[in-house]
């Protein structure tokens, strides 16, 4: 048996569900950490051998969810299964391919978070109130018994482009497959909660913190945001706060932060690229604020870019076969393993334990704490002070956790101290982010 298939698959612990505190996900009683990757064009771009290579790579790096879409655009000539919607005739070859890819993921123990159609297909009116239920019924007939399916409505659009179509899609998915979780992938720098938080079919929120810097609030581009939606820049943790501010609590996750090796702002090819230290920052900031996990992305992987002779969409420079090895994708598992080393689902964002005071933007120190542990993410490697009163009467060990390597480096016994002022050593590289880990022994 290959390495990627060893061990229990998550659904063998129980059906994927929202945790009792309504903030996280569980398989039965087993905590489930959403570590996603955006592979939007997986079904359209990769053959089965390529799909296996990609999926096994992600499985062995600790990923748990692959986000993809069945119909990305309105195909010419009825390709990609679109005849099922328009003429009640399916494309057997395409759907057979989708079946096999999903089975590969199942064998590897990976969930597939699937969009029936990308948002622009709804925005164009091609998928609409008159045919969306028929399409979902077809999908349910094909996939309702697959254990590794999560459904996503939307697809990089505001819910307002067709509220009733999306509501009908969500309701039908939940009616026909009540045990499957349903979310909504929204437009850049928005969250599903802005339109659908109170919908019974929406099990969890998803936000797209997007690909813009703090200074790129308005670029005069098609994807500028309406003022009413707010603009948090790179502070993706603020979306978690907003989603957790509603009277009815639902889990939330950053389903599309800045991708590794995507142009900053997407549109201007003179701009620099987001790098591995940026994707780490988004991950730690949102998870330490209480997100149920995190989704990684890469410029070449989401579109499975293959032509090195031209620059790909969003500035993609490296073909997907090389990009699958980008280091940022390797670093995500360290966050997952850090969270799973404690009872993180009973933890909380704990900024009040930061005695040195909170600062803005890159100077932010994100603090997450629970019974017997305290984590503090320091993006710039600056000095800060934390309270240790929660450890009163306990022996306390302190480590610097390296989010690049996943290595814990012990540096102090803090037993009996009420506070600690700390500063990590420098890597003497472009990046210098660290996590303070304090544990009761």
Automatic annotation (TrEMBL):
Ranges for domain Putative collagen-binding: 349-437
Annotated Apiosidase-like catalytic domain residues: 19-344
Source superkingdom: Bacteria
Pfam families: Apiosidase, Collagen_bind_2
Gene3D superfamilies in the cross-refs: Glycosidases
Family annotation (PANTHER family): ENDOGLUCANASE (PTHR37836:SF3), LMO1036 PROTEIN (PTHR37836)
Protein's name according to its UniProt entry: Collagenase-like protein with putative collagen-binding domain
Organism listed in the record: Cuneatibacter caecimuris
Species lineage: Bacteria, Bacillati, Bacillota, Clostridia, Lachnospirales
